[in-house]
Amino acid sequence: MYRIGIGYDIHQLIEGRDLIIGGIKITHEKGLLGHSDADVLIHAMIDAILGALALDDIGTLFPDTDPKYKNIDSTALLKHVFNLVKEKGYSVVNIDSNIIAQAPKMMPYIPKMKDILCKILEISHDDVSIKAKTKEKMDAVGQNLAIEANAVVLLQKS
Ligand SMILES: [Zn+2]
After folding, report:
1. How far apart are CA 83 and CA 33, in angstroms?
2. Separation of 148 CA from ligand 1 center, angstroms?
3. How far is Cα 19 from Cα 104, in angstroms, rounded to an integer?
4. What is the pLDDT of residues 87-109, one digit of tens each?
5. How many angstroms is it from 58 CA to the middle of ligand 1?
6. What is the domain partition of the chain in residue ranges?
7. 94-153 pLDDT, tens per residue?
8. Which CATH homologous superfamily contains domain 2-157?
9. How far apart are CA 23 and CA 83, in angstroms?
10. Distance from the alpha carbon of residue 62 to the mean position of ligand 1, in angstroms
């Protein structure tokens, strides 16, 4: 049996924060604002996985009012969610995703992001797609005020 899920996230870009996307620290003059490390890609993937299992969403599972999650590494949250997948008897078939950012260029970082994600989710590079898009300078993302991510995941009963 297969289950599919969709995830979306957006975080505001501000000065004085590290830019962490896909578990990687990216060199940039701004970072994403959030209670956790604000890893927009991992958050979208987590919501896709939770959606596939029809579980509570990321904000319900890891409330931003809980000091326990302050500046937490989102890879730890992804590990927690992958354990829920395994507990329910599922494995990940594949993930497709977009990072939508006007700047910086994401492409050089994508292979390392895949290394991190594949290790956590027990899949290979062939099973993860991370695409980098811009907003053609339009809207908040295009004006360098925010970064967005989308993810779709397919799970299989193992
Ligand atoms: Zn988020």
Report:
1. 27
2. 9
3. 10
4. 999 999 999 999 999 999 999 99
5. 8
6. 2-157
7. 999 999 999 999 999 999 999 999 999 999 999 999 999 999 999 999 999 999 999 999
8. 2-C-methyl-D-erythritol 2,4-cyclodiphosphate synthase (3.30.1330.50)
9. 18
10. 10
- Give the Å distance between the CA of 35 and the centre of ligand 1: 9
Instruction: Calculate how far, in angstroms, residue 74's C-alpha sits from the geometric centre of ligand 1.
Output: 9
Distance 13 CA to ligand 1 centre (A): 12
Q: 92, 44 in Cβ contact below 8 A? A: no
pTM over 0.85: yes
Question: In terms of Cα–Cα distance, which of 41, 50, 43 is closest to 131?
Answer: 41
- Distance from residue 43's CA to the centre of ligand 1 (Å): 5
Cα(76)–Cα(78) distance, rounded to whole angstroms? 5
